[in-house]
């Protein structure tokens, strides 16, 4: 009886056209090498191309199978801790889960390529965790330069009077020294704010402007750090897996997820018009927002902000085109009525 993990890999190999199962099941490694030489579908793909070729939902299912398998607890920990070679992890999984063939077989290639992508997500988590645990150091000139970069990105026309000043409250910090606000998320909180403010300038400025509304204001920087906590939590709890398999497990993709969250939060916040929200509503509404985002993650609707903005731009273009078409049709009807009179 084959395992679920084997069936997932085997089905993917067939769907990708990588092999005819019956030709490979009874071959030894030397025969496999000969078969691979004859197979243009396998031979033409590099290991990197094979990784990309495997659909995100397949990698996601393989990830879930490993995550929830008690039998593969050691292999999962090796992936998580980045200890041991991927080849060794793959071999043990294939033995424990009764894979036919070797790592060179198409079913083995699906597993190995998927493990590479799964490993990348653990590597990203380690990187982000290290950044989040790195405390802001006001004696470190690099840290100080980054903080000033955030100010200049949000307030380009206003000069900072001094390092310790109430001006920091204008961009949403709590006191005279922003360093104290980064305690929870370390430098990752600052990195995320800078990426948003400098990469998605229009969105960030719109969000920043909304945060300064006389009634429905909220502390931009502090909320941004809360958004970082949400993003990092999604990464740590592996809620972000499908998103990473679809768009890539790297820092930029993570940063785009952060920006997506902040953009969506601002839309959520300003959508409440009657009555407008106040900062006193933040805790309750932020919980509601997190529930909404968890649903998006569960249903795989989340996307990088850059893609979401492009999607909205196209939708707006199509809407304007439809509106113009309606207007033109109405004008033609009016003209026709005039001619008939």
TrEMBL record:
- Where is this chain compositionally biased, Acidic residues type? 328-341
Q: Which InterPro entries match?
A: ELMO_dom, ELMO_domain-containing
GO MF term set? GTPase activator activity
Question: Per its UniProt entry, which superkingdom is the organism in?
Answer: Eukaryota
Pfam families per record: ELMO_CED12
Residues passing through the membrane, by range: none
Region (Disordered), start-end ranges: 320-341
Domain named ELMO: residues: 142-297
PANTHER family, A to Z: ENGULFMENT AND CELL MOTILITY (PTHR12771), LD01482P (PTHR12771:SF51)
Q: What's the protein name? A: ELMO domain-containing protein
Mind giving the lineage of the organism this protein is from? Eukaryota, Fungi, Fungi incertae sedis, Mucoromycota, Mucoromycotina
């Amino acid at each position: 009886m084959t395992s679920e993990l084997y069936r997932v890999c085997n089905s993917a190999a067939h769907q990708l056209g990588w092999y005819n199962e019956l030709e490979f099941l009874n071959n030894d490694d030397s025969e496999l090498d000969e078969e691979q030489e004859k197979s243009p579908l396998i031979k033409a793909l590099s290991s990197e191309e094979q990784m990309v070729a495997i659909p995100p939902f397949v990698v996601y299912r393989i990830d879930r199978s490993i995550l929830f398998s008690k039998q593969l607890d050691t292999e999962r920990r090796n992936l998580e801790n980045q200890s041991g070679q991927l080849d060794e992890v793959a071999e043990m999984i294939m033995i424990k889960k009764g894979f036919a063939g070797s790592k060179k077989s198409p079913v083995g290639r699906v597993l190995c390529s998927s493990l590479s992508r799964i490993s990348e997500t653990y590597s990203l988590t380690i990187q982000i965790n290290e950044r989040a645990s790195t405390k802001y150091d006001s004696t470190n000139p690099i840290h100080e330069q980054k903080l000033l970069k955030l100010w200049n990105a949000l307030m380009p026309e206003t000069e900072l009077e001094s390092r310790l000043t109430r001006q920091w409250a204008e961009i949403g910090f709590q006191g005279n020294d922003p360093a104290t606000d980064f305690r929870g998320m370390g430098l990752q909180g600052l990195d995320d704010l800078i990426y948003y403010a400098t990469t998605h300038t229009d969105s960030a400025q719109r969000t920043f402007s909304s945060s300064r509304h006389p009634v429905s204001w909220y502390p931009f920087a502090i909320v941004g750090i809360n958004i970082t906590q949400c993003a990092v939590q999604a990464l740590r709890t592996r809620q972000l897996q499908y998103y990473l398999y679809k768009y890539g497990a790297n820092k930029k993709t993570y940063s785009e997820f952060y920006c997506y969250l902040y953009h969506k939060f601002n839309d959520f916040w300003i959508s409440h018009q009657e009555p407008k929200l106040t900062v006193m509503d933040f805790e309750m509404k932020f919980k509601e927002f997190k529930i909404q985002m968890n649903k998006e993650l569960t249903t795989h609707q989340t996307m990088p902000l850059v893609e979401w903005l492009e999607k909205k731009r196209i939708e707006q273009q199509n809407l304007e085109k439809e509106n113009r078409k309606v207007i033109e049709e109405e004008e033609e009807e009016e003209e026709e009525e005039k001619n008939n009179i």
